[in-house]
Amino acid sequence: MANKSDFSERRAFDETKAGVKGLVDAGVKKIPTLFHHQPDKFDKATNLGNHVIPVIDLANIDKGPSLRQDIVHMLREASETWGFFQVVNHGTPLSVLEEIKNGVKRFFEQGAEVIKEFYTRDKFKSFIYNSNFDLYSSPALNWRDSFACYLAPDAPKPEHLPLVCRDILLEYGKHMMNLGTLLLELFSEALGLDPGHLKDMGCTEGLIALCHYYPACPEPELTVGTTKHSDNDFLTVLLQDRIGGLQVLYQDQWIDVTPVPGALVVNVGDLLQLITNDRFKSVEHQVLANHVGPRISVACFFSTGNRLSSNPYGPIKELLTKDNPPKYRETTISDYSAYYEKKGLDGTTALTHYKI
């Protein structure tokens, strides 16, 4: 954090409880300096090369062992190189994908007085709406508002969720839990372990839906929708709308993750990189700000987040050898999340802190 006036500006923004959407609704033509980001040192996305995020079709997952092995092979390759891939024929109906995007949009576009009721920085609520979770620690703010909803291990009481998106959030969570469980079986197999290994370790125990609303930005070249970061979970399943803007850092170059209709984006999180001892890569990514908006995205994090967890996680013993000793010390999910949040989205990875 910079100085006192910067802090009081951040607090004033926080106290409006109206988020970035509030600025846009007020008709700002110049974005506040709090949102100005330093230029990034990596090449802008050109996408002239053959760099396209792999798309994995899950249609044949139960059509026989060899077809399943083909999928496992593609997933292993994507996780070791990109850390990102898209999945199609993933079992979640298109109508559900459309309705969750509509539900998120409805939440952010209901009247200002209604939405303010949900505004909080209390990380232990089951529904948390605010703008910039790292408002007081990040070098610059992101041009987006968000809400987080803890869906597992404890399902939220329906009355704690906003009516405009209550039913679809709970339904979407069930679909994501099914998909995440399948993906973690495939990740286990890709590591040469029993299909249930990662699930038995507790990697599907927690599920957090992180729903983002990126308003149209009058000066998108000065800010970003989400700063360069990697995710503080085991696995993320992301639904993005047609606007795009998500980019992945691959070989020191930004690559666009072009929206594929009906697809979900899957990426390896820091905790999966940690327990696989760097075999699978938790890759840095960002979201650009855009003249067009709002952009809606729904990221499902497989993690118990800030919920107290005593289960220690370190590199999986079965993957370690004399030539491949542990590269990380053990941590709990809540410790990792707390460190990640305190550090904020400052463009560096929290994994460094846990390196041996």
TrEMBL record:
InterPro entries per record: DIOX_N, IPNS-like_FE2OG_OXY, IPNS-like_sf, Oxoglu/Fe-dep_dioxygenase_dom
Pfam families registered for this protein in UniProt: 2OG-FeII_Oxy, DIOX_N
Keyword match Oxidoreductase: yes
Gene3D superfamilies hit by this protein: B-lactam Antibiotic, Isopenicillin N Synthase, Chain
Start and end residues of each Fe2OG dioxygenase domain: 203-305
Required cofactor(s): Fe cation
Protein keywords: Iron, Metal-binding, Oxidoreductase
UniProt protein name: Fe2OG dioxygenase domain-containing protein
Provenance organism: Lotus japonicus
